[in-house]
Amino acid sequence: QNQLPFSKVLVLILRYRILNALKKLKQDPHAKHIDEKIAEQMRMIKETQNNYKEDLAFRPPENDTIAVNQLREIRRLRKLIYTELRAGTPVDPVSCQKEDRRLQLLVLKVNISNLIQRTLDLKRMHQVGSCRQLVEKGLEVIQHSPIKDNWLDDKAMTLSQILADLEKEVKEKNRRQLEEQVEDEENKKELDELFGDKKKW
User: Fold this and answer.
1) What is the tens place of the pLDDT at every residue in 102-122?
2) pTM above 0.85, yes or no
3) Beta-carbon count within 10 A of 27 CB
4) In angstroms, how far is CA 103 from the centroid of its own chain?
5) Residue 39 near residue 95 (C-beta atoms within 8 A)
6) Which of 93, 128, 130, 70 is nearest to 9 (CA)?
7) Residues contacting residue 143 through CB under 8 Å, at least 6 positions apart
8) Which whole-number Å values give the CA distances from 122 to 21, 116, 135, 166, in the listed order?
9) In sequence order, what DSSP letters do the residues of 33-58 get, joined into one string?
């Protein structure tokens, strides 16, 4: 299953969320080893701050189910960022805003990636009309997106090429149909000339 790329700020927010939950648990007299768990979580926060290596490369979802799960997870994470900011989690608000924009862009990438896959499936099945509608929708979404990057620019070129291929396919189909129509008419004309009026027979 495709994993979402987690940024440093997102990992820190999640770590602080765990830390705050542990601090609340400390008030429970039945909770065990809480101090050790808190110390471990603080160590992991420091480790994340100093050494976390981000890998934010987008990996397209392999199917619709994974895409839906990714979109659901992104919605949850965006909500979590603002919840934790309001709760006073010690993370940089500007970094959180950047992270929210990154997650917005991720939503767009998941949707466009899924759209391209469906487009290629329709193209293979020669469903030109449906395929064209989907391509035009994808191009419109990318064009009107306030957030863009090289990946989206590349996918816009891919969709434009698919659209050009579809138009070429439609023109070729129309040309063949016209040729067949002309050929049928010529054959009919030849038969009429060959056999003439039946009354003469």
Assistant:
1) 999 999 999 999 999 999 999
2) no
3) 8
4) 11
5) no
6) 93
7) 156
8) 48, 10, 11, 11
9) SHHHHHHHHHHHHHHHHHHPPP----
